[in-house]
Amino acid sequence: MTHDSSWNRRAVWPQAPVWSCILIGGKSRRMQCPKQLLPSSGGVTWLERTVAVAVSVTPKVVLAGDGVVASSLTHLPHLPDVPDVEGPLAGLLAAMRWAPRVSWLLLACDLPELTSEALRWVMSYRSPAIRAVLPSIKPNMVEPLAALYEWHLHPLLESRAASGIWGFQSLPEEYDVITPLSPQHLLPAWNNVNTPHEKQDYERAVL
After folding, report:
1. How far apart are CA 175 and CA 182, in angstroms?
2. Radius of gyration over alpha carbons of the chain, in Å?
3. Residue at 3 is within a domain
4. What is the dihedral of CA 125, 129, 132, 133, to 10 degrees?
5. Exposure pattern of 30-49 as b/e (b: 16+ CB <10 Å)?
6. Which among 31, 42, 94, 124 is most buried, taking Cβ atoms within 10 Å?
7. Confidence of residue 39 (pLDDT cuts 50, 70, 90)
8. Rounded Cα–Cα distance for residues 22 and 92 (Å)
9. Beta carbons of 35 and 57 less than 8 angstroms apart
10. In which element (H, E) is residue 117 found?
11. Taking the mean position of all CA atoms in its chain, how far away is CA 65?
12. According to the model, what pLDDT value does residue 205 have?
């Protein structure tokens, strides 16, 4: 599959808007506290920083999951996860059911080095022939978060959920899902932080 597509195919493709869905439904067991409320180096919470990055590239941002949010973000739509589905798919399906003609950037709140440049790079692969863009940070290692899911992937995801398939790693085997390798300078955008030790390492690195 090629990145580009012919001008006439783009002319007839009803390109859906792209919004951002930020997942805050994780239990943060390894971090031992809600990751979305952790302070970033800029004096705001990790979630507030992620929202700011998302707003810079998409016109609308929603939150998915039962996590607590800072008072500054209570104006954002806050969707409950789809029941009986685990992992990020529960939040993505919630967003897709809520706005079925919208394509989604699916983001995590524990990506403290996420950048608008990285998200624009992911979105640059949009094409009528592509249903999802899952970046790879190394060969054969697909990243399902900070990834793009087009609205017309929704039926396939519902079918997988009904069959108890909640992960994203097998999606590249499906039709029209691509996994471009991230440019080296964008790789930090996908560095997630899961434990207090990883948080300390990250904070030392940015000081």
Report:
1. 21
2. 17
3. no
4. -20
5. ebeebbbbbebeeeebbbbb
6. 94
7. low
8. 9
9. no
10. helix 116-123
11. 13
12. 52
The pair of three-digit structure tokens given for residue 101, joined into one six-digit string = 């003609």
Helix (H, G, I), strand (E, B) or coil at 81: coil
Of 27, 37, 12, 19, nearest to 128 (Cα)?
Answer: 12
- Both tokens of residue 133? 């863009």
pLDDT of 96 above 90: yes
Arithmetic mean of pLDDT, 122-150: 92
Q: 118 lies in a domain?
A: yes
Q: Distance (Å, rounded) from C-alpha 60 to C-alpha 98?
A: 13
Read off the CATH number of the domain in which 113 is found: 3.90.550.10
Residue by residue, DSSP assigns 64-107 as: ESS----GGGTTS-EEPPPTT--SHHHHHHHHHHHSTT-EEEEE
What's the domain count of the chain?
1
Q: Which of 13, 8, 17 is nearest to 150 (CA)?
A: 17
Domain assignment present for 9: no
Binned at pLDDT 50, 70 and 90, residue 1 comes out as very low
Range of the domain at 68: 16-206
Identity of the residue numbered 59: P
Q: Is residue 2 part of a domain?
A: no
Q: Name residues whose C-beta falls within 8 Å of residue 22's C-beta, 6 or more positions apart in sequence.
A: 47, 50, 51, 54, 61, 62, 63, 64, 107, 108, 109
